[in-house]
Amino acid sequence: MSLKNDLLLRAAKGESTERTPVWLMRQAGRILPEYRAVRGKLSGFKELVETPEFAAEVTIQPVDILDVDAAIIFSDILVIPEAMGLAYEMVEKKGPHFPKTVTSSNDIDSLKVADPSELNYVYEAIKLTKSELDRRVPLIGFAGAPWTIFSYMIEGGGSKTFSKARGMLYTNPSDAHRLLDMITDTTIGYLKNQIAAGADLIQVFDSWAGVLPPNHYSEFSLKYISKICDAIDEVPITVFAKGAWFALEEMNDLSCNTVGLDWNMNPNKAKEVLKSKTLQGNLDPCALYGSFSEIEEETKRMLSQFENHSHIANLGHGVYPDTDPEKVKCFINSVREFSSR
Ligand code: CP3
C-alpha cells in the first residue's frame, strides 16, 4: 500500500524529491499541550508507552498539529533493558532511573537476550498507528544504539561523566562486549518485529556517542551499530550518533542509508565524507528560541548548507521541552517553503 506522502522514504533512498522532508526528533511528547492532556489522565509515562491506544494517539498528534512528513512511534529506548531483565522507572521531572544496575559479571549472567514477544505492546502500537495514519506519512520505528543502552544499564540513569560505563571498557572489556552483544541481539529481534508490524524506516539513537574516545567508539559502539545495520535490510535505516563528528569516516562504511548530524557537525565536511549517504539534521534546537524571522533565516542557512546533497531536515537533537509549538511550526513551514524547487 503506497504512502500519500513518501518524501522521507525517497530522500532516505537518495532519490530526488520536490522539496526537503522534515520531522523533529522527540516531536511526540515534550512540547505539545495535547500530549500533556493525554499524559495527565494516566498513572505515568510507562502506562502511556505500554497502552497501544494512547501511544498511537500521541504518535499521530504531531502529524495532525505540526504537519511533519513522518511520525515516530511513541516509546522509549529503555524498553530494551527492561525486556532483558533490568526494569526502569521514569521519575517525574527528573528522567529515567534504574533501581538495579549492572555492577558485576553475575549481574550480566542474570540478564537474557529478550524474546521479541516481550515487547508486543510496541508492535501493537505500531499496527494501530499505521491503521490510524491511513498512509498519510511514513512511520519511523527506533531503538537506542547498544552503547547508549549499555550506559544506562551501568550508570542507572543520566550522568555527567559516564565514568562507570566508560571505566568498564578499561577494567572489564570482555564483560562489556558480552553485555553489548546481548543488547545487540535483543535490538535486532525487536527492530525486525517493528518492521513486521509496519515501521517504514528505522532510526538508531546513539545519544551518548560523544563521550567515548575514537578507538573505544569503534570497538564498543560502531561495531554493534554495524551489526544492526547489516541485519536490517527490509527498510531504510538512519544512524544518529550525537557528538560522533570524529567518526564520520567510519560511519561511511555502515550499511545505513542516512546519517543524522547534530548541530556541532559541519555539513560541508559531512557531505564530502558521506558522499552516498543521505544526511539528516542539523539545526541547533536553541534556534527555535529565536523570533519567527530569525528561525526563517537560520532554517534557510541550514538548508543551503545541505544543497546538492540528499537531505532530511531536522534539528541537531531532540526538540527541547520548553519550545513554543508555534516556533516549531515556523521551522517546518520554512523548510517547506525554502526547499521547494
Ligand atoms: O521522538 C519521539 O517523540 C518519540 C518518542 C521518544 C521518547 N524517547 C519519548 C519520551 C523517543 C524517540 C525517545 C528516545 C530516547 N529516550 C532517547 C534517545 C534520543 C535522545 O533524545 O537522545 C533517550 C536518551 C531516552 C531516555 C529518556 N527518556 C530520557 C533521558 C528521558 C527524560 C527526559 C526527556 O524527555 O528526554 C525520557 C523520558 C521520555 N521519553 C519522555 C518522552 C516524551 C518525557 C517523559 C514524560 O512525558 O514524562
**Backbone structural class:** alpha/beta
Name the bound molecules. Answer: coproporphyrinogen III
**What is the H/E order?**
HHHHEHEEHHEHHHEHEHEHEHEH
Number of helices, counting only DSSP H or I runs of 4 residues or more? 15
How would you describe this protein?
The chain is of the alpha/beta class and 341 residues long. It has a single domain, classed as TIM Barrel. The protein is 48% helix and 11% strand. It is built from 15 helices and nine strands. The chain has helices at 7-12, 33-40, 45-50, 52-66, 79-84, 105-109, 120-133, 146-155, 163-171, 173-197, 214-231, 248-251, 267-273, 292-305, 325-339, and strands spanning 71-72, 89-91, 95-97, 139-144, 201-206, 237-241, 258-260, 278-283, 311-315. The strands form two sheets. The protein has a seven-stranded parallel sheet. It has a two-stranded antiparallel sheet with strand order 2-3. Helix 4 runs parallel beside helix 7 (120-133) and helix 14 packs across helix 15 (325-339). The longest helix is centred in the middle third of the chain and has 25 residues, at 173-197. It is globular. The relative contact order is 0.14. Coproporphyrinogen III binds at residues 25-30, 39, 45, 72, 74-78, 90, 95-96, 142, 158, 205, 207, 318.
